[in-house]
Structures are given as structure tokens and as C-alpha cells.
User: Which sequence fits this backbone?
């Protein structure tokens, strides 16, 4: 079924990725791990823009940019150059941002997502390098601000700006694009996505082929979806009432879930781009083949392989390949136990428990999960007990064998179950009659009695089966 | 009392007495100065000289007093660019050249006066008042490194550093009867030089003899990885100090004797060229057809770069700050009050030249004309070894004569700016007098061929006595 | 040639406050210079590439090695407008 896109929605996204895993900033040797430190303690004459300071390009940042471009199927340009983007803002210490303009390092790429009607290709217009400005903090609220505090720790951090074509047709497709992008970047190990400010999104959206509106200040993927939903609705309503959409920049208010016009004088921008005289051009396309060879297996390829190699469901394949750490974890486990069991236990059970507790895959060891799976498949414990062990480890620590012993989780012997079944039947004749008479619920009641007698250690499914058989026999 | 001695002479005097005594006598001279050449004298100068005595420091400039133009960053010592907007600014780092001077044992006496932000040809636009020409205190010393040239000519220091964007070392050298060199672009690190026009400028030494220029170059020139435009090339400048111009081929561009040239200057320069013939060189006419457009191209490029380089001065992090109820108003008032008229005009013109709609007509066009000017030099210097002509079309003019007509001041740079556009090296040596004021001979060389122009300048010096003349007012 | 309105617009782009009576004077002084710049129109620059950098150098990089940053007091030393380690300025708008 083809997605009609009745409102003619066109969404383009600009994503800024902060390369916080590089050791130093883009143009100076200040260290990048400023996130928990005092303000203005990761600053030098260069990133503070002191008069007379000069930038020097971090080679690893350039290589990371090429890596990202190649992973997005871009071509790397023959000669690239930094430009100055001139505007005034207190977080911009030089009064211009050193960025890239008409010769971005990478361009003409694409990313495939699960669209509204199947696979959809989203074009990547360009990916380029630029420096992060500092951070502003308003004293008081933004409406009644008494002043501004400025911290330049972030100034000069490397940003890679990834600009997509306006190929997304709904907030859902936009969300899928962001997830996909995040996943690819995670595989490339170029940034820690959990750190503050690691990934920022600006959206461009239009309806009915009208002017596009830019929405800024989106700080999460969920926020992006909400912002787009609101903005599309706002534009539709505006047009329906006979209004015209003007090209403008709007600010997303996360708390209220609305976009607000920012059409003030500050928005009249003429950036007066010109090539940065303090930096010479870069000719680095010849590094691309080697960097391309060294690219890891990316999410789409890995998912395809998992489907084939491990014969797992599409849902499992997706769940296990979103994050590289999870994928690697899974493959380790799958090399030690049955891959199908592994996929159920890792993708459904373990991930579920981790997500509930807001933990990453780092919180659990391969050793432990393998042991648990083996205990279950060898019929030593029930599946339910396996889940309990996982929860215990996550909440209190410990090792599987210890917990089995402590909680007495070893599966109850068959004859004990058989004895409990017999007892339960003889002690509850009315329930048995009711069940024979067609009341399914009564069986549950008797199963409950069996579980009580075995102190919960019997396998409920097995107990139920045995009961049904025994009751039939006695008939 | 030490006066008008070259570096060798100074080192001798130090050996005979002490660095402390020599520095003290220069400081006393500065105290009694009538040229207003210094913005700041360094209160640690004497201490430094004492330390050199006690540590037995023996670098090539051990104990030698040097003055530094006030747009070069000196750690712990006020650096103002002769502007109100940097009043009180004390850099927390040394420029590369300062590190080199300190390592060689030089004693920095203070920071010299200049046209505000190096924008000028007369040092009249300084916030700290004009500097006077020691030869005639009613006249300008030239600019923008007027202070650096005047203090050398007045015998207040044996040597100084200036900066040359469109003639700012050569012009004051010519007007004050001292030697001044603008090296090849990329020869001396710009790290720590407060930028006016970064694709055009270089730091340059001023002294009373060519040999001293070479000594200073050996100390401060050379590769610096903190300046991405710094060229990695070793050279021994003192090797060039030889009296030998046998077979030297001199090109004389007719365009450098254009209308507006003073008769006295013209005669003096031709006499100098005739002297070269006596010494064994030969000369021929060469053509530099784009010279007349070089001035406009220079100013457009310089102003455009300046409009961006000076954007960081907004009162937020250092320097003068005006009041304003929001940041944009504060910045606008700070810049309106903190910058002088000429600086503001150039920032406005530069902003205009880069702005949407005018970018191609002015900025891009100027860059293309730059290519043509550079080609003129490539062609001319392929036929001859050096070019010669008057550094300035007139001798030093009177204070106040041109300051109200910016364009007339710009036109004085006609012979010096093409050199900056092409990036070639050029030296100005005293070659006589017109109207009792010094006249400078400009000698231009090929890229990185400082040694040929130094040799040519030295030979001239050794065979004439112009450089031995002193201003009468100075003892 | 530059108009009074353009002067005010450029003044805003350059964050230099220019009041009513100043903008006329600026327009006049700037126009005489722009007039002079206009002579570049005479030059034939078709097929002439612009010179952005006068030296033909490419690929100047540095290693991704940490260098010491400035202490906080030094960073803030050149201003009296600071608070709790931050620079302080008036509100944005």
C-alpha cells in the first residue's frame, strides 16, 4: 500500500553530532571531557577567541568526518575548505563560527529507513565540519531574564552537521530517520550519544508544497516527533483559514509542546561567508578508500546477516542490531548457546528488564546470561525462574548459581509434582466437578493449589497438563 | 647614555658594563622622549635585564632592549592595538615571536604606538595620541607601525618589531630613516599577532642597520605549528650580509613612479639606482600593469577580513564594555564607543563588501584582481632578481594634513600594498633625503628570497652613508 | 552607491551603533571610498580565479593530543563581569 501523504508533508532534518570521543577540540588541544567540570576550565586562547589566537585543524576530526560521510554513502569531495559564518551572539567568542560552506567534506549520500509504506531512501545532501559555540544560561526565566551566564567549555568542540533532503513525509518517518542515524553513528564509535548535547536536531517542514519553516531547539528524538506533529498541524490549520506560510524560524517549547515564532530582528541574518584565511584547504579524498575498508559492518548489513545466519524474526533482528554493543553481546551469546534461544532471551527478556530499569547492556555479563539460558534449556530451572535470576542480578547483584541455591529455584522433581497433582484433585472435588462441567476457571484454581503445594517451584504449564490428564484418567 | 647603536654595539656595551645598566639608560631616554612612541613601558624590564646579568644568559640578543608594536600579544603586559576597546587587556600568553625573543635573551622595554588596529599610514588614529617623527616633530612618523619606527629613529631602542599589512613596516621605516623588512607571507608566525587582515600581514623587524634586521630574522622567523599559514622552511638570514651586488639584475616598475610622486623622492631614488649600477648591478624597466588596481583590491580585501577579525571585540570577555540593557545593544554601544572613526569606517565598508548582493562585485572581484597583481610579480621577477622603487611617493607629511580625507591617506600606500597582495618580501632602506626628510628605497624580492634583498640592501648601506645620519633633535 | 538606510543596515550587521545624524556623514565618507573601489569594474577578470591564499599549501593538521587549558581565573581575569565561574552579560533580548 503506497503512502498517500495527503497533506504533502515534506520534512528535512539537520542533525548536529558532537564528536565528544575525540580527545581534543576541533581547532585546539583543550580536552573534550568537560561535561562534569566547572565552567571555563576547558578553555585556551584559541577556543576563547582571544585576540591573536589561531586555529589548527585536528586531523582525527577530519578522519571522523570522512568516516561518517562514507557510512552515509556520501562521496568525499576532492578539495574542501573551512569558511567563516559571521554573526553576533555571546556564545560565539570570535564573532564568527568556523564552519564549511560551499565545499562540504561529504555530499550526495543516502540512508534507508522503514517508511510509512515499506523501505524508504532518505537522501543526505551533505555532511560537514564546524565548531560548537559556548553555552548560555539565562539568569531567571527566558521571558524575564536578568542576564546571561556564559561558559565556553563547549566552544570549539567538533560538530558534524548532517543535512538530509526533505524526503521524510511524516513525523514517524522523521523519528525512524533519527533512530537510524543514531544507530549508524553508534556503530562508528565516533561519539558517546548519552552525553549532554551529543546530538541536536533542527527540522525543516512544509505542507501542501508551501514555504518551509525551520524549527529549532529540539533536544530529543521524542521532542522531534512532537514538534513536527504540532508544526504540521499548525501549518495545515493556518492554510485552511486562508493564511500563507512564511519562511521563518520557530522555537520549539518542549514543556508546552508548541512552536513559537522567533521572527525578531536578530533573525535577519546575512552571514557574509568567506573562506577562513587562517586555515589552508584540505585535499583528503585519497584517504577515503582506506577509511571505507575499515568501516565496521553497519546496522542494515548486520541486520540482514542476522536474519540469514541466525534465522531470527525481523523484530528480533531489528532489536538486536540497533546498538553495536547489543549486537556484539548477542553474537557472543549465540556462539555459546542455541542462537534462537539467545535471541529470545537477549532481545525480549534481558532487554526488557534492562529498559525497565533504564540500564544499558553493559549492566549484564555474557557469562551470566549464557549460564541462565543453559540452566533453562537443560530443564534445571523454569523460564520464570530464569527471569527472576536476571531481575535479582540487576537489582541486587550476585551470580546465577548462588541465586538458584539461595532461592531454591531448582525445578521440582516430577514425582513431587505428580504427588501434588493427586493431592490437589482429591482435596478439591467440587472444583474438579466444575471443570468437568466446562468451567475452565476451576482448572486454574486447582493449578493454583498445586503451585501452593510445591511452593511455586513447579512448572505451571506442566502442572496444568498433568492435571488435565489425571482428571481425564479418573473419569 | 647609549644612543643610536646597533645590536653589535649594544652587546659590546653590555659586556663592558651590564645589561641592567644598558636597559636603565634606555629607560631613562624613553622617560625624556618627545616622540610619544610608547603606549606602555614594561615595569619588569629592569628586573629581566638583571636576571640576564646574573644568569649569564648568552643568547644572540642577550640583554638587548627591543620594543614591540602594541598589536603583538605579550604575556602579562598590556596589549591595546592603540584602541580604547582593548584598554586594560592583558594577554595571558606570549606571541610566538615574543617567546623567541625572550629565549634569545632580549629585554622587552615596552609596547609601541600604532594606528588603531593597524589601520592607517600615519599613526594619527591612535587612541593614545599621535607619535611624532623624530626628524621633524610636526610630521607624522608614518604608519601603522609609527611608534616602532620612531623609537628606533630616536635612539630609544636599537630595534623593534612592527607589522605590515599594506606597508605598515616599510612606510614608517622610510619616513623615519630606518630599515624595515616585510618578510614573505608565512615566514614569521602570526600566532599572537592581533589580526587586521590575516591573508596579507606579516610581523616585520625595524632597526638602524641591515645586519640587525638579519639578526632579528634569525631569531624570530621560522616554522610554528600553531600558525597553519606558517611555512616550514629553514634559512640563515645573516648569511646574506655580504657586500656584493655584482651582476644583480634590478627591475624598475614604471608604475611605481606614478603621478603624485614627489620630485625630491623621485630624484633620490633614481640616484640610488644609479649607485647600484656603480656597484656592478644592472637595471631594466619592467611592467606591472595592474598596479593601479592593486590599491582598491587591497583595501577591499583588508577591510573585508578586518570586519570579521574585529567582530570578537564586543565587551563580553575582555576590554572596554559600555552599558546596554540587552547584549546586542551592549555590543553595539561598546563598539561604537570603543572603536575610532577610521576603524569603524573600515568595518562598515568590509561588512558591506562581503554582504549579500555586493559580495561578488567587491570581495570576489578584488580576489581576482589579486591574482592578476600576483601574476605581475611572478612575471617581472622571472626576468630580474629584485624590483626597486620608492617606498613612499612623498616624504613624511605634516600631522593633520591628511587625516580628514581617508582616501588621500589610502593613496599613499600605492607602492607598498601590491607587495602584500602578492606575498613577496620587501625591505625599505634609507637612501637619502628630500625636503630634509628621509627617503626610503623599496627592494622587492621573490618569495622566500629574503637573502637577495638583504644582500642588496646591505651592499647599498656599505657603499653610502645615508644610514649614518641622525635626527638632530635626538642626542 | 550606499544609501543612508544601507548604512544603518550595515551598522546593525556589524553591531556598531550609528545614530540618525551620523548615518548621513558615514554615507558620504563611505561613498567616496566606494567610488574609488568602483574602478575595479574596468578590469577584465573573466576566467581569472580568485586568490584566497597566497601560498599554495594544503593539509596542515595537528595531532589529537591534549594540551593544558587555562585556569578558570586566568580565563576570567580580563573582565569584572563574571559570576560563579561564568562570564556575565546583559540578557539576550
Assistant:
Amino acid at each position: 500500500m503506497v503512502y498517500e501523504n495527503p497533506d504533502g508533508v515534506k520534512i528535512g532534518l539537520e542533525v548536529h553530532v558532537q564528536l565528544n570521543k575525540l580527545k581534543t577540540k576541533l581547532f585546539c588541544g583543550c580536552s573534550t571531557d568537560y561535561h562534569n567540570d566547572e565552567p571555563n576550565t576547558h578553555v585556551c586562547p584559541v577556543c576563547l577567541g582571544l585576540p591573536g589566537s589561531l586555529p589548527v585543524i585536528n586531523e582525527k576530526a577530519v578522519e571522523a568526518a570522512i568516516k561518517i560521510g562514507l557510512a552515509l554513502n556520501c562521496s568525499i569531495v576532492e578539495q574542501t575548505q573551512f569558511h567563516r559564518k559571521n554573526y553576533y551572539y555571546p556564545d560565539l567568542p570570535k564573532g564568527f563560527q568556523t564552519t564549511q560552506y560551499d565545499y562540504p567534506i561529504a555530499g550526495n549520500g543516502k540512508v534507508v529507513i522503514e517508511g510509512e509504506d515499506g523501505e524508504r531512501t532518505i537522501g543526505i545532501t551533505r555532511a560537514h565540519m564546524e565548531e560548537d559555540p559556548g553555552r548560555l544560561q539565562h539568569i531567571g526565566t527566558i521571558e524575564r531574564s536578568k542576564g546571561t551566564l556564559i561558559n565556553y567549555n563547549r566552544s570549539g568542540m567538533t560538530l558534524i552537521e548532517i543535512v538530509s533532503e526533505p524526503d521524510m513525509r511524516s513525523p514517524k518517518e522523521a523519528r525512524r530517520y533519527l533512530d537510524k542515524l543514531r544507530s549508524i553513528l553508534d556503530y562508528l564509535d565516533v561519539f558517546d550519544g548519552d552525553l549532554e548535547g551529543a546530538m541536536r536536531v533542527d527540522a525543516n517542514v512544509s505542507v501542501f508544497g508551501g514555504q518551509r519553516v525551520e524549527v529549532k531547539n529540539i533536544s530529543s528524538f521524542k521532542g522531534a516527533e512532537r514538534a513536527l506533529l504540532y508544526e504540521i498541524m499548525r501549518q495545515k490549520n493556518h492554510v485552511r483559514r486562508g493564511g500563507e506560510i512564511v519562511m521563518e524560524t520557530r522555537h520549539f517549547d518542549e514543556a508546552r509542546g508548541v512552536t513559537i515564532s522567533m521572527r525578531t530582528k536578530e533573525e535577519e541574518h546575512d552571514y557574509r561567508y568567506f573562506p577562513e584565511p587562517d586555515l589552508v584547504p584540505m585535499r583528503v579524498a585519497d584517504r577515503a578508500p582506506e577509511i571505507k575498508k575499515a568501516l565496521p559492518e553497519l546496522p542494515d548489513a548486520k541486520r540482514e546477516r542476522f536474519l540469514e545466519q541466525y534465522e531470527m524474526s525481523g523484530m528480533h533482528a531489528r532489536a538486536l542490531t540497533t546498538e553495536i554493543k547489543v549486537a556484539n553481546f548477542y553474537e557472543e551469546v549465540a556462539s555459546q548457546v542455541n542462537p534462537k534461544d539467545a535471541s529470545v532471551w537477549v532481545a525480549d527478556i534481558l532487554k526488557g528488564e534492562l529498559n525497565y530499569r533504564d540500564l544499558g547492556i553493559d549492566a549484564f555479563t555474557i557469562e551470566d546470561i549464557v549460564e541462565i539460558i543453559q540452566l533453562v534449556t537443560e530443564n534445571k530451572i523454569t523460564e520464570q525462574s530464569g527471569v527472576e535470576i536476571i531481575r535479582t542480578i540487576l537489582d541486587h547483584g550476585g551470580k546465577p548459581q548462588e541465586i538458584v541455591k539461595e532461592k531454591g529455584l531448582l525445578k521440582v522433581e516430577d514425582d513431587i509434582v505428580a504427588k501434588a497433582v493427586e493431592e490437589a484433585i482429591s482435596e478439591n472435588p467440587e472444583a474438579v466437578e466444575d471443570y468437568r462441567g466446562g468451567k475452565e476457571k476451576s482448572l486454574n484454581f486447582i493449578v493454583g493449589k498445586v503451585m501452593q503445594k510445591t511452593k511455586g517451584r513447579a512448572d505451571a504449564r506442566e502442572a496444568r497438563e498433568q492435571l488435565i490428564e489425571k482428571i481425564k484418567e479418573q473419569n | 647614555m647609549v644612543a643610536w647603536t646597533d645590536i653589535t654595539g649594544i652587546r659590546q656595551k653590555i659586556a663592558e658594563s651590564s645589561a641592567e645598566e644598558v636597559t636603565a639608560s634606555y629607560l631613562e631616554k624613553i622617560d625624556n622622549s618627545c616622540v610619544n612612541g610608547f603606549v606602555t613601558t614594561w615595569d619588569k624590564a629592569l628586573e629581566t635585564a638583571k636576571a640576564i646579568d646574573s644568569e649569564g644568559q648568552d643568547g644572540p640578543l642577550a640583554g638587548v632592549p627591543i620594543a614591540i608594536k602594541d598589536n603583538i600579544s605579550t604575556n602579562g603586559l598590556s596589549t591595546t592595538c592603540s584602541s580604547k576597546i582593548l584598554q586594560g587587556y592583558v594577554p595571558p600568553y606570549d606571541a610566538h615571536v615574543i617567546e623567541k625573543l625572550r629565549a634569545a635573551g632580549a629585554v622587552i622595554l615596552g609596547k609601541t604606538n600604532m594606528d588603531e588596529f593597524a589601520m592607517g599610514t600615519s599613526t594619527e588614529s591612535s587612541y593614545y595620541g599621535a607619535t611624532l617623527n623624530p626628524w621633524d616633530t610636526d610630521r607624522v612618523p608614518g604608519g601603522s607601525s609609527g611608534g616602532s619606527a620612531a623609537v628606533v629613529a630616536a635612539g630609544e631602542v636599537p630595534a623593534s618589531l612592527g607589522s605590515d599589512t599594506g606597508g605598515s613596516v616599510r612606510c614608517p621605516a622610510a619616513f623615519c630613516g630606518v630599515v624595515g623588512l616585510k618578510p614573505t607571507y608565512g615566514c614569521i608566525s602570526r600566532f599572537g599577532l592581533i589580526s587586521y587582515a590575516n591573508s596579507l600581514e606579516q610581523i616585520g623587524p625595524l632597526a638602524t642597520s641591515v645586519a640587525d634586521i638579519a639578526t632579528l630574522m634569525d631569531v624570530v622567523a621560522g616554522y610554528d605549528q600553531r600558525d597553519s599559514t606558517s611555512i616550514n622552511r629553514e634559512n640563515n638570514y645573516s648569511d646574506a650580509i655580504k657586500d656584493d651586488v655584482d651582476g644583480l639584475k634590478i627591475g624598475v616598475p614604471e608604475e611605481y613612479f606614478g603621478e603624485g610622486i614627489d620630485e625630491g623622492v623621485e630624484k633620490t631614488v633614481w640616484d640610488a639606482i644609479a649607485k647600484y649600477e656603480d656597484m656592478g648591478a644592472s637595471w631594466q624597466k619592467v611592467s606591472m600593469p595592474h598596479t593601479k588596481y592593486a590599491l582598491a583590491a587591497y583595501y577591499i580585501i583588508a577591510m573585508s577580513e578586518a570586519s570579521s577579525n574585529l567582530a570578537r571585540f564586543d565587551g563580553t570577555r575582555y576590554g572596554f564594555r559600555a552599558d546596554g540593557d540587552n547584549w546586542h545593544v551592549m555590543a553595539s554601544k561598546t563598539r561604537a564607543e570603543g572603536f575610532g572613526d577610521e576603524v569603524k569606517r573600515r568595518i562598515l565598508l568590509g561588512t558591506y563588501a562581503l554582504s549579500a548582493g555586493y559580495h561578488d562585485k567587491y570581495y570576489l572581484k578584488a580576489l581576482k584582481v589579486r591574482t592578476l597583481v600576483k601574476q605581475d610579480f611572478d612575471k617581472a621577477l622571472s626576468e630580474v632578481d629584485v624590483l626597486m622603487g620608492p617606498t613612499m611617493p612623498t616624504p613624511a607629511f605634516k600631522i593633520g594634513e591628511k587625516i580628514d580625507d581617508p582616501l588621500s591617506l589610502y593613496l599613499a600606500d600605492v607602492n607598498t600594498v601590491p607587495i602584500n597582495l602578492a606575498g613577496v618580501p620587501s625591505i625599505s632602506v634609507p637612501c637619502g633625503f628630500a625636503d630634509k626628510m628621509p627617503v626610503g628605497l623599496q627592494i622587492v624580492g621573490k618569495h622566500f628570497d629574503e637573502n637577495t634583498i638583504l644582500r642588496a640592501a646591505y651592499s647599498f648601506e656599505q657603499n653610502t652613508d645615508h644610514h649614518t645620519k641622525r635626527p638632530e633633535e635626538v642626542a | 552607491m550606499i544609501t543612508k538606510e544601507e548604512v544603518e543596515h550595515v551598522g546593525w550587521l556589524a553591531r556598531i551603533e550609528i545614530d540618525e545624524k551620523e548615518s548621513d556623514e558615514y554615507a558620504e565618507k563611505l561613498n567616496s571610498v566606494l567610488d574609488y573601489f568602483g574602478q575595479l569594474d574596468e578590469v577584465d577578470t573573466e576566467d581569472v580565479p580568485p586568490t584566497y591564499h597566497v601560498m599554495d599549501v594544503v593539509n596542515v593538521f595537528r595531532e589529537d593530543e591534549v594540551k593544558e587549558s587555562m585556569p578558570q581565573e586566568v580565563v576570567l581575569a580580563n573582565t569584572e563581569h563574571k559570576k560563579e565561574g561564568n562570564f556575565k552579560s546583559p540578557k539576550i533580548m
Summary: The helical segments of chain C are 4-13, 20-37, 72-76. Residues 4-43+53-80 of chain C form one domain. The two ends of chain C are 33 Å apart (CA to CA).
